[in-house]
Amino acid sequence: MKAHPMAGDCLIAVVLAGLELLALLDPPKGVHPVAFWLVGVGLLGPLVVRRRDPLLSAYLILIAGFAQLFTHGPSPTGGADARIRLADIALGVALYTVVAYVGRRQGALYVLWLAIGTAVWAWWRLGPAEAILPTLIIVVIFALCWVLGEFAGARRAYHTEVERRLDLLETERDQQATIAVGAERARIARELHDVVAHAVSVIVVQADGAAYAVRSQPEVAEKAINTISTTGREALTELRRLLGVLRSDDTELDRAPQPGAQSISDLAERVRAIGVPVRLDVAGDLDDLPAGVGLGIYRIVQEALTNTIKHAGPGASASVRVARVGDRVELDVTDKGPGRPHGITAEGGGNGLIGMRERANVFGGTLQAGPSPEGGWRVRAVLPVSTA
């Protein structure tokens, strides 16, 4: 009946109509058969659409109920046959429907009309003396219909609110999933940028050097080509790891060993191998840093040295200092070179500086990048360890 409300309402009307047929065994006196059936149809017919259009159905039933006051007149013996028809139950069903599906205000107005009709029926057809008991029965029936309507309306409102909250929870879950996907894409994009930018910068510099020295200094060219090969293999390994995470839902792929603070010395050595002197100063214990903080420190240093290779020019040098002080890690990368004239105010339009700041912000840290008072460029970051 919930899935097909009209079918259920038709069943109610048919059952009441079947019970109404029993009245033909003792037909009411003083009532024309045609009027009897017309009023019956008027009372039971609108029940079919009571949930599709509650108010229309209820007032059609009410009109049939008022018509019954005039069609069911006095009997031939001079009295009045004022029995309550089974079809009159439709008035109570209509009251229940209005209260449950429309609201109390419309229900109260409908009760007022029912009270007027009941009073007219009792006074006109029965008289004051005989009307007390039937009127009390009708009042009890209508009161029961009101209570049932209130209960059904409260249940409908509760289920509607539950469904609304479930929809909100599903929407919130979808939004959180979208945010998580966006954050993961941003993380992978940062990783790809750092890996590719560093590797390509090293490869370009080494390729230029090899092309210049291939005839006059073949041993230097061979060393540069070896560096290109090593750097390319390392970059390809990291790219395969990142792309493997994108292609698979298996979280084990994301647990592959990643560079950390301990790998900064290897990074500095690779940069020295391409001809950029790097002075590395590490203070404090960096071995027990959280994996995320260690990776963030490594990537910031990698991006800073990549920018040195790209922008500082020939003869550039860099200084890297990583120190753990209490519950924070301080990172300082400075460089000097002919491509870093004193007083420079901008770092170019790449995404490297944005990526470094994002990595610092992820862990609640800060990052400052800009020209150094002594000339060149300086990147300084502070990453807290306790909140990582």
Automatic annotation (TrEMBL):
Swiss-Prot/TrEMBL catalytic activity: ATP + protein L-histidine = ADP + protein N-phospho-L-histidine
Top-level enzyme category: transferase
Entry GO CC: membrane
Pfam families listed in its UniProt record: DUF7134, HATPase_c, HisKA_3
Keyword Protein biosynthesis appears in the UniProt entry: no
Enzyme Commission designation: 2.7.13.3
PANTHER family, per the entry: NITRATE/NITRITE SENSOR PROTEIN NARX-RELATED, NITRATE_NITRITE SENSOR PROTEIN NARQ
InterPro entries according to UniProt: DUF7134, HATPase_C_sf, HATPase_dom, His_kinase_dom, Sensor_HK_TwoCompSys, Sig_transdc_His_kin_sub3_dim/P
Histidine kinase domain sequence ranges: 297-387
Keywords: ATP-binding, Kinase, Membrane, Nucleotide-binding, Phosphoprotein, Transferase, Transmembrane, Transmembrane helix, Two-component regulatory system
An MF annotation (GO) of this entry: ATP binding
Organism placement in taxonomy: Bacteria, Bacillati, Actinomycetota, Actinomycetes, Pseudonocardiales
Name recorded for this polypeptide: histidine kinase
Organism: Actinokineospora iranica
Residue ranges of the TM segments: 7-25, 31-49, 56-72, 84-102, 109-126, 132-149
Keyword field contains Transmembrane: yes
